[in-house]
Automatic annotation (TrEMBL), chain A:
It is a multi-pass membrane protein. It is found in: Cell membrane. SUPFAM superfamilies: MetI-like. GO terms for biological process: transmembrane transport. This is ABC transporter permease. Keywords: Cell membrane, Membrane, Transmembrane, Transmembrane helix, Transport. It comes from Neoroseomonas lacus. InterPro entries: MetI-like, MetI-like_sf. It comes from the Bacteria. Coiled coil: none annotated.
From TrEMBL, chain B:
Keywords: ATP-binding, Nucleotide-binding, Transport. Residues 9-239 form the ABC transporter domain. Pfam families: ABC_tran. This is ABC transporter ATP-binding protein. One of its GO terms (molecular function) is ATP hydrolysis activity. The lineage of its organism: Bacteria, Pseudomonadati, Pseudomonadota, Alphaproteobacteria, Acetobacterales. It comes from Neoroseomonas lacus.
């Protein structure tokens, strides 16, 4: 009930914002490079739907592939540090050092190493997503109640048994929270990396349109990016609510 | 002279030190098969340390003797050999009643389907009939505790360690659970070592009541409870019960004063 009311309120807020936007853009006859009208953006998006769909598809593939790789590596690495605590010493500071620089700062290097194709975007997304998920998974694994671990041990469970039956499920809420945040990051990083060098994708469309002074097209690409991001976020959130039913 | 070969668990001059704290010192006791022994003592007297040693989670210091079924052993060899129930139910929130109850057996490698069937058949006895598909967050405190007890019972070991299993329950639920536990115990014939803060509970349940000293924990008093079984609720007001209670309370009082003085002086 409350969730539906929240959704309704969100939609109403969105409609209100778009109406004000349209009124301001039209009322003050703002030039397109400042703020184009919503109706113009929608019309342009429809007109260029084939180009935008193709670009969106490329970006979505990069984001999804990077997301999948980052999630698996992040959870796996966190799990490894839990099963082999001796690795914590060398691994954790290294991870923190890499993560202390904004991920996007690595883009030029990664483009140099992996080329201008999709590989470099996937690697960048995996890097960004991997750290987010790694840190939340590690926090999740560490949060487990010591007394629960003792109970499992008294039942004769070894470290592997404790991990599968206790640590992993107990860490799921935090892992899922990290994964939800990472959805949005995955698109941002894919698009920014595309802007720095790519053969296609929404970031590339944005960059090209700016050089062609086609600001309505920039906004259309942003629109598509937001839609994909929102859908991805919603999907992961919905899966999360299904899987973690006990909270 | 082997006079104690029948004991299930024997402990002699068991000590345990954590840094500056001597939790146990010269602790000794025997538990006979099928016996119900209750342990009371002032807070911080090392009851939990005692349980952690018997559960195999903590190794006692050098020099003590620990025997299980007549054979000397390290505490860690007891992991998986006694069924341990900690104070809090520690049910896994992502497992339903039946899957929580079979957890210990599942770890042991038992067939899941067969175990589930066995657990389902036990539900009525534990007052959980019709609740097999419920999750812990849907149950009351008393029911959660019964699921935890069921998990402990299903893990069929000769010795059961129960650490204040009813501590968090209200008085009424608690006395019902006590009679219910005695009933189950008499039918399943396990050996039980039971920690509690509640003197009435200790006497009502136990064949023997063990009173521990203030830290470092030793045996202050081992009192046999010669009250007939099955025990009824009205037993607690009988003169025999009151006499034992007087004796046990005096012993606890003395120790509680000691630890109180020690704490306020520190």
């Amino acid at each position: 009930m409350t969730r539906h009311r929240g959704t309704l309120r969100g939609i109403l807020g969105g409609v209100l914002l778009l109406t004000v936007w349209e009124a301001v853009a039209r009322g003050f006859s703002l030039p397109a490079y400042t703020l184009p009208a919503v109706s113009d953006i929608l019309a342009a998006a429809w007109q260029h739907r084939a180009v935008l769909a193709a670009a969106g598809w490329i970006t979505a593939q990069e984001a999804l592939a990077g997301y999948a790789i980052g999630t698996i590596v992040g959870i796996g690495l966190a799990g490894l540090l839990v099963v082999a605590p001796l690795l914590r010493g060398p691994v954790l500071p290294t991870a923190m050092a890499i993560n202390s620089v904004p991920v996007v700062a690595w883009s030029p290097l990664v483009l140099l190493w992996l080329g201008v194709g999709m590989g470099s975007k996937i690697a960048m997304v995996a890097l960004a997503v991997g750290f987010t998920v790694f840190l939340s998974a590690l926090a999740g694994f560490d949060r487990v109640d010591r007394r629960s671990v003792d109970l499992m041990r008294s039942f004769g469970a070894g470290p592997a048994g404790v991990f599968w039956r206790l640590r992993l499920p107990a860490a799921l809420p935090l892992i899922a929270a990290g994964m939800r945040v990472a959805t949005v990051r995955s698109l941002i990083v894919a698009i920014v990396t595309e802007m720095l060098g790519a053969y296609g994708g929404l970031g590339w469309v944005i960059y090209q349109s700016v050089t062609l002074i086609d600001f309505v097209q920039v906004w259309s690409a942003i629109l598509v990016a937001s839609a994909i991001s929102l859908a991805f976020f919603g999907l992961v959130g919905a899966i999360e609510r299904r899987v973690i039913f006990w909270r | 002279m082997q006079t104690t070969t029948t004991a299930l668990l024997e402990m002699q001059s068991i000590g345990k030190r954590f840094g500056a704290v001597q939790a146990l010192d010269g602790f000794a006791m025997d538990v006979e098969p099928g016996e119900f022994v209750t342990v009371v003592g002032p807070s911080g007297c090392g009851k939990s340390t005692l349980f952690n040693i018997v559960a195999g989670l903590e190794e006692p210091d050098e020099g003590g003797i620990l025997r299980f079924k007549g054979r000397g052993c390290h505490a860690k060899e007891l992991l998986g050999r006694v069924s341990f129930m900690p104070q809090r139910d520690l049910l896994l929130p992502w497992r339903n009643v039946v899957d929580n109850a079979i957890l210990a057996r599942e770890i042991e490698g038992a067939n899941r389907a067969a175990m589930r069937a066995e657990a389902r058949a036990m539900l009525p006895e534990f007052g959980l009939a019709g609740f097999e598909k419920q999750y812990p967050h849907q149950l009351s405190g008393g029911m959660r505790q019964r699921v935890a007890l069921m998990r402990t019972f299903l893990f069929e070991r000769e010795l059961m360690l129960l650490d204040e299993p009813f501590g968090a329950l209200d008085a009424l639920t608690r006395s019902m659970m006590q009679r219910w536990l005695l009933d189950i115990w008499q039918r399943h014939r396990r050996t039980i070592l039971f920690i509690t803060h509640d003197v009435d509970e200790a006497i009502f349940l136990g064949d023997r009541v063990l009173v521990m000293t203030a830290r470092p924990g030793r045996v202050k008093l081992m009192r046999k409870v010669e009250l007939p079984r099955p025990r009824k609720a009205e037993l607690v007001t009988s003169p025999e019960f009151t006499a034992i209670k007087r004796e046990v309370l005096d012993a606890i009082e003395e120790e509680a004063m000691k630890s109180f003085v020690a704490e306020t002086a520190a």
